[in-house]
């Protein structure tokens, strides 16, 4: 029975937070080959069945197992943790460029053996590790695919004397997809594609059926006459037959003809030059030039120089640079040196710069520089390398954000220290006046906040809207950032251009944890906006129940009054809760406020006294009124003193609202 494993893997990889969850064929194929080579194919297949049986509940079950102490783990828990490790190992093979910091050096999908040394099974380690003994690219007709694998099986049979003691792993990589095959001499093939799992079995006499399966999987359209792929063969390092088979495969490779006609073949937009560049075969590119053929084609907007940089192949990069490749090409909206910086590849950066690459040219859309993306990804050696190459470390993107902003936003402490050590100003601002500290506060990057302030960043600088880093943290309920800032002399009394303190912002966003943190550090819980509104009044105005409750817990008197002018009260009525912000509701609240003003405005007095409870009644905040009426804060209002509607009418009017003509109720505070 075929298992829909590919869609499930994609869904689970997305839930696990991997960067490209839809891509898993390469990593899955390698994990399967490793299992087959050490006799653990049954274990692999049982694991896939377990993954399939858990389905969408798998992630939650893994999390439960991870939360347990080691001595509490059941056998099922251990199985779940093994599944997590399986996914992680698969991810490292699938997307190695994303884990340069983990590896300590850049790896690409070509570095299968090196990655396997880091992330593989105990059984594979006991056999000395994974060993690649053959790699050859080709662009074949359908008939030639059968011929190729027929000859390959003969080579393996002869070199091993038909010994079935070891199987041989074969990775078949096309431009868009990777599949795997094993061959057991004298017996036959097993074919694995993650899009039609489980594996298929073919005898040696059925090689033509294997070839047909390969062609169907790797050919986008039946009408395409050619199929291109790279064939790599793997075994374990302690395989006694390794030397003999390696010699036989080298001889086989030398006999494979490569004609000009084969070099001109294409398959679904790619050619042999593309396959060769992905798999470190510089000699193929040399053959193109020998016949006067072009090597400057684009493959889905990626020229060969991009593919070479993606795989970190210095030999091919150098070959292309010396044979007319455009070093500062922007086919994919960014330059090759930007790609190298993103991957943390100092060697490729140095080689590209040596051949004339612009060290400040990166993404042509966002204007993000190579240094910027390096700082964002925490690639400190890359930052240092660019500094030595004369890159502008202060150059901003299309919004003026600099590499230091990127490092702060991503909490990359080492990048921050390195950039400031290279004389980047810690208070450098973007086009909106935001400093790196603003970005760190926005993202709750606590370590970045600490190191920025330690190295000279001012925690009280305002952006173009007057907001300090504390305002940014309060808006997003980033309590750790708030604590880090308050512990380092950030001033909670500073107001933004609307006259709001960070506490006002926290209240309006209904961020109770932020409010509790401000209270813990002694912030003024009665601070007023320019219009006289206090935090608890603001909570009532907007129906922020969590904020209201937290302010009461912090000791704010719910009966406290605000003295507000008639003009400002009328303005407040226009900016109340968004929960039921319909035209009908807005008109009714405006009328409520007008009646309140009429009943409570005294001649000769410029302001009117109003409580949070009054405001909750006016804006008909049912939940807030219930909160107050069901505890000791209830006012003596069995017959509401406002006189223009009763509490029951509040409930009735709110429950019968039908209008769907929503309007913007967000205020411009003043």
Automatic annotation (TrEMBL):
First and last residues of every ANK repeat: 300-332, 332-364, 366-398, 432-464, 465-497, 498-530
KW Mitochondrion (keyword) present: no
Keywords annotated in UniProt: ANK repeat, Repeat
Gene3D superfamilies: Ankyrin repeat-containing domain
InterPro entries: Ankyrin_rpt, Ankyrin_rpt-contain_sf, Multifunctional_regulatory
Pfam families: Ank (PF00023), Ank_2 (PF12796)
Entry-linked PANTHER family: ANKYRIN REPEAT AND SOCS BOX PROTEIN 2, MYOTROPHIN
The protein's name: Ankyrin repeat-containing protein
Originating species: Legionella drancourtii LLAP12
């Amino acid at each position: 029975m075929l298992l829909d494993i590919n869609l499930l893997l994609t869904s689970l990889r997305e839930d696990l937070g991997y960067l490209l969850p839809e891509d898993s064929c390469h990593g899955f194929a390698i994990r399967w080959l490793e299992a087959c080579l050490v006799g653990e194919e049954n274990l692999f297949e049982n694991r896939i069945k377990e993954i399939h049986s858990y389905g969408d509940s798998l992630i939650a079950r893994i999390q439960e197992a991870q939360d347990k102490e080691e001595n509490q783990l059941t056998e099922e828990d251990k199985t779940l943790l093994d599944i997590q490790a399986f996914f992680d190992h698969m991810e490292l093979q699938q997307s190695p460029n994303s884990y340069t910091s983990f590896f300590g050096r850049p790896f690409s999908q070509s570095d299968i053996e090196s990655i396997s040394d880091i992330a593989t099974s105990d059984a594979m380690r006991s056999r000395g590790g994974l060993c690649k003994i053959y790699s050859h690219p080709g662009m074949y007709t359908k008939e030639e695919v059968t011929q190729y694998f027929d000859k390959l099986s003969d080579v393996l049979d002869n070199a091993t004397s038909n010994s079935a003691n070891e199987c041989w792993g074969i990775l078949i990589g096309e431009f868009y997809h990777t599949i795997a095959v094993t061959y057991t001499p004298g017996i036959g093939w097993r074919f694995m594609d993650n899009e039609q799992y489980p594996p298929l079995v073919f005898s040696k006499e059925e090689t033509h059926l294997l070839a047909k399966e390969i062609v169907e999987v790797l050919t986008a359209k039946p009408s395409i006459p050619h199929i291109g792929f790279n064939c790599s063969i793997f075994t374990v390092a302690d395989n006694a037959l390794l030397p003999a088979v390696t010699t036989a495969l080298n001889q086989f490779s030398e006999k494979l003809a490569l004609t000009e006609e084969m070099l001109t073949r294409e398959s679904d937009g790619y050619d042999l030059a593309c396959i060769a560049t992905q798999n470190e075969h510089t000699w193929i590119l040399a053959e193109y030039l020998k016949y006067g053929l072009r090597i400057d084609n684009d493959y889905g907007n990626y020229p060969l120089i991009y593919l070479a940089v993606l795989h970190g192949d210095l030999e091919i990069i150098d070959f292309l640079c010396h044979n007319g490749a455009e070093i500062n090409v922007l086919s994919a909206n960014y330059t090759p040196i930007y790609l190298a910086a993103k991957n943390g590849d100092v060697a490729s950066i140095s080689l590209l710069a040596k051949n004339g690459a612009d060290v400040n040219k990166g993404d042509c859309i966002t204007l993000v520089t190579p240094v910027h993306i390096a700082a964002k990804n925490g690639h400190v050696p890359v930052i240092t390398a660019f500094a030595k190459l004369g890159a502008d470390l202060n150059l901003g993107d299309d919004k003026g954000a600099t590499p230091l902003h990127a490092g702060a936003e991503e909490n990359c402490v080492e990048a921050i220290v390195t950039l400031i050590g290279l004389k980047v100003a810690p208070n450098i601002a973007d086009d909106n006046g935001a400093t790196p500290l603003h970005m760190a506060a926005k993202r709750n990057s606590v370590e970045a906040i600490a190191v920025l302030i330690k190295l000279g960043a001012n925690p009280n600088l305002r952006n173009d809207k007057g907001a300090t880093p504390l305002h940014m943290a309060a808006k997003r309920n980033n309590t750790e950032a708030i604590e880090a800032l308050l512990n380092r002399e950030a001033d909670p009394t500073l107001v933004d251009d609307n006259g709001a303190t960070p506490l006002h912002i926290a209240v309006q966003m209904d961020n109770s944890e932020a409010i509790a943190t401000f209270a813990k550090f002694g912030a003024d819980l009665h601070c007023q906006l320019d219009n006289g509104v206090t935090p608890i009044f603001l909570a009532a105005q907007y129906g922020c129940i969590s904020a209201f409750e937290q302010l009461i817990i912090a000791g704010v008197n719910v009966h406290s009054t605000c003295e507000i002018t008639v003009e400002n009260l009328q303005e407040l009525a226009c900016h109340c809760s968004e929960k039921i912000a319909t035209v009908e509701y807005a008109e009714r609240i405006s009328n409520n406020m007008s009646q309140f003003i009429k009943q409570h405005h005294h001649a000769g007095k410029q302001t009117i006294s109003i409580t949070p409870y009054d405001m909750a009644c006016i804006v008909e905040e049912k939940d807030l009124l219930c909160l107050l009426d069901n505890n000791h804060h209830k006012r003596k209002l069995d017959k509401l003193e406002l006189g223009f509607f009763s509490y029951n009418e509040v409930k009735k009017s709110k429950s019968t609202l039908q209008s769907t003509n929503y309007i913007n109720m967000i205020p411009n505070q003043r």
